[in-house]
């Protein structure tokens, strides 16, 4: 327990000499965003994910098999938007490869613009999601999540992918003392799971009470804070800016 708490504290408030600097808490914030956004998409946009592409592939298979209540179009649109966003994230990653802080600042700033557009559309529609609004939101959110996923991959902070928890949960179990492992980064892994859960819970509460635009606004605010904070702390010579091997 002591190791878990110590690791969690180091993740939330990294030491000055930490190889990844302030990136871990910033990426935890993006993990919360993922939970909020997938709550919006699944509960408010017709049982589709915009961050969890594994779920979309499965939903597409179910829909093509004739499962009731599932659309084959929505997961295809989401997958296409996500992959397009990932391509954009890859291009930004190449251009900003020398400084991880600037890479994160640019990507989250771009995401914030996409999220602001989604929030405005939902607000103007007064949370009444017709087909046009639904697919517009799926595209905007999918683009943002693809971008986020590509950049998180480029940043290379262990156990903080911001969108996928399967390997994180597997690591918690497979690397645990009962499995004969040394349990590396238990606090960080638990915080990642907790961040996703918190975002999903908050997003679901708002969507289920008819406040889809409010949920998107929460995600937008988190992205904006992350973008501004990262921009402010990304001096040219910070030790954590260099890309990981």
Shape: globular
Could you spell the SSE succession in H and E letters?
HHHHHHHHH
Strand composition percent = under 5%
Overall mean confidence score, pLDDT: 92
Quaternary organization: single chain
Provide the low-confidence segments as ranges: none
Provide keyphrases for this structure.
245 residues, mainly alpha, single chain
Written overview of the protein:
This protein is mostly helical and 245 residues long. The protein has one domain (2-8, 24-233). It is built from nine helices and no strands. The longest helix is centred in the middle third of the chain and has 25 residues, at 100-124. The model has no long low-confidence stretch (mean pLDDT 92).
What is the strand and helix layout of this fold?
Elements: H1 2-12, H2 23-44, H3 53-64, H4 73-95, H5 100-124, H6 131-155, H7 166-174, H8 186-208, H9 212-233
Helix pairs in contact: 1-8, 2-6, 2-8, 2-9, 3-4, 4-6, 5-6, 5-9, 7-8, 8-9
